[in-house]
Amino acid sequence: MRARFKRQFPKPYLWLIRFVGLIVPRRLRADWRQEWEAELRHREALLADWDKLNWQSKLNLFWRSTSAFWDALWLQPQRWEEEMFQDLRIGLRLLRSHPGFTFVAVLALGLGIGATTLIFSVVNAVLLRPLPFPQSDRIVRIEERHGQATRPLNLSYATFLDLRSQTGAIEHVAASRFGTANLTDGAEPEQVNVQSVTANYFSALGITPVLGRTFLPEEDLPDRSNVAILSYQLWQRRYGADPNLIGKTIKVGSSNATVIGVMPPGFRSSYLFAGQYDLWTPLVPTGSLSSNRRSHLLGVIARLKPDSKIEQAQSELSMIANRIERENSGVDPDMALNAIGLQTRLVAPLRQTLIVFLCAVGSLLLIACANVANLLLARSASREKEMAIRAALGAGRLRLTRQLLTEGMLLASLGGAAGLLLSVWGIKLVSQLDPSNYPRINEVSIDWRVLGFSFLISMVTGVLFGLAPALQLPKHGLYETLKEGGRGSTSVRRNWLRQSLVVAEVALALALLIGAGLLINSFMRLMQVNRGFDPTNVLAINLNLPFSKYPDSTQQTAVLKQMLERVSAVPGVRSAGLISSLPFNGGPATDFVVEDRPPIPDNQAPIADIRIVDANYFRTMSIPLRSGRTFTEGDSAEAPRAMIINEELARRHWPGENPLGQRVTMKDWGPPLTGEIIGVVGDVKADGLDSDTRPMIYWPYPQFPGIFNNLVVRTNGDPAGVIAAVKSEIWAVDREQPLSRIQRMEEVIATSVAPRRFNMLLLGVFAVLALALSAIGIYGVISYTVAQRTHEIGIRLALGAGPSDVRSLVIRQGMRLVFVGGLIGLAGAFALTQLMAGLLFGIKATDPATFLSVTLLLVGIAWMACYLPARRATKVDPLTALRHE
Amino acid sequence: MGKGFLTYSSAIILQAVANGYLYGFDIIDVTGLPGGTVYPALRRLEETGHLISKWEKHAIAQEESRPPRKYYELTRAGQDVLAEAVKRYRLLEQSDLNQERTPKPTKA
Question: Among A423, A586, A764, A844, which residue has the fewest nearby CB atoms (within 10 Å)?
Fold first, then answer.
């Protein structure tokens, strides 16, 4: 039988098994082949025994042996699984055996991924996540513009009424205005932000209360409006989440309001005005509000009808604007009404900032990747022999690449996890820094989109730097590496790649640093802007009188005078004054006319900010008097109307003349009011340090009392020391008077520059990280090169080169990379900083001083990073270096 | 491995092994299942512990001048699930797997 078997064994079966066996996992391959061979031979022997081994049965046997292919295919997943686990095991072992390397790589990646995730989470909350209302893309905000004025205005009540009755493409046209209200029913009076809204406001947003109901259509009429809706937070905090509160009465100011609903927890922002709201009351037109077309107080929203497009709404609004202008000649010159998506409007001012941040973190992430790629390259040099041995044992190029990629992915996953932790911490920090101009910043969180993004960038970065060492696998046989003992053509190629990575790092870091430098420079210039008053030791307190309690101007004047007198008498208080709106917090403005001047067309009428102050305000704030006098007790309600103007107004309208004694009429303050200029004071910024100085008119308090007031108190020492005494003096006059926003004037300034400080800090942190990472990158590459060139340096030293020669040789090599990177970085910075033009103050995006100083800073640090390994190079002992050969 | 649910083809393969058909081709012949089903099923059954494979002693193979053979045997767990399967698939009892014990090559 054996002889016959040897003679007759059909080779094709064996070939087939050998061939198919190639795809069987290596671990199983020998056994697999043997099993199949044995089975085939057994079968063949059986056939021979049965004497049927003719060509037909041989063919059949061959056909049957193709089943081996299915068998081999079935074993494939095991092959991948096995190799993957093997790769992972090796990767983990490597990471564990080099904890320093692992720490640095994970930290670098964590910083890069963390920063990117953080900014993406902000972008996600602000730009990407739809507003939390059903079909929020159909909600539009309607704004009014006049002529070339770039700032959109809110609407007047009269225009709102026109819109409501004349539009067909939009529905639920709703208006709201913000304000404050005093809750006086509890133990301590409390001032809360309140939004007065038309009855259909909530249906325009499509939001329903968690408890009770919203306003009924008739509840925004004067005699039915004593109802209120609470925010979830207020309901919880002040009323202990009492489910039976609905239908009960609370005391708002001195009047009663029936609670009819509680809104859901997340609903506090109006997305129309800044701030968080705790109370909603019906918007009731009082006095001349419904006919006054010049007081732009209402934020108006509407919903596009299901079958309408925004373009339709826009063309309707244009027609309405034309009609209003025609029918109210001279009142609304060059009027335009625009419909803009609510979310678009909300994020428009931030888009540019966020794009700059995304560019910045993208650069940071790339720098981190380049750094880790460099570290991996350095390590792969020491693993060359290992790779060569693996290759010699049968691992193909693909297999080795997969191994390297798996290691990269492993690092990236760890980096991603670290980054996610860092970004969670970063989100907390960001919300603490509270950049108040960021809408929805309180909604920033880690959601599925952020998680997905973080995972994706981790994987992409893993591939990016995982591929770097894989690219370095020698293309000619790895056997050469074994022969070369780790030196040769691969080293040259690796150096080239490493150096390119350093060049890229330097370029990115420089662009980022210049961007941050420009912001820092802007901020410093901003802080040097003349404020026009001395904020040191000044306390500001919001003191809004409840209108229902003090409806009469005589009452208002009397109670405020009493309060001021008592506060001024507090020990430690130097003086106390009143103003309707604090500097930097904005405020009302009016068109005005100078008496005895030729008439000016309505659309070119000059505008001035209006502030109401008491006699002591200028002294308390240390605002200098330039000419004339400040207000006195004599400027009473009965005395002739007097006004003080700022220098800017004097400069514009009486250049080189004396404005004192001139008469000016305010047009937008109810009936036109005329007063005489009695003094000129220094300029104070109305909107913020970065705003233009605008003309301003001050009126004396007794002639123009109001309910919105701010108390300013100048003290001898730290103002915090007098807060309790000031409060008790005010409460001695009115126990129910709420006091809010008690802060130092320095804090008021800080708040006004908070968005800029936030941008500067964030970009500054990113730039410092980028600088540190690229310094580490340069240091790593130069150190590596020094280590590699130890032999050469040894020979140089042996041949008589001095330490300074070696040092300059090494430094020159490093600085060449910095130079190339620097040039590319400068070009990149020109592009990046163009994006930032709108974020800067007082300097151009191409400010040469910033470009130069930042470049010098980078060069200095890069030089240090080169110097350290260079110094080590001079310590090479020629004998030791040569002996290694 | 506990008792598990067996597909009909797995059950029939186990039955074939239980009846002494130790090679894939024999199982193909006796069950009529295609080769693409039988081999993966054998691997799976081995992986789930219903079958174990044993290599023939090297000396025996050497004597006959051929590679050592690999035999499949039913494990205890395999016997249990087969018993379960037989209850479920009544046809198994009546199949000709129980009739003939000597493998016979066929031209399929």
Answer: A844
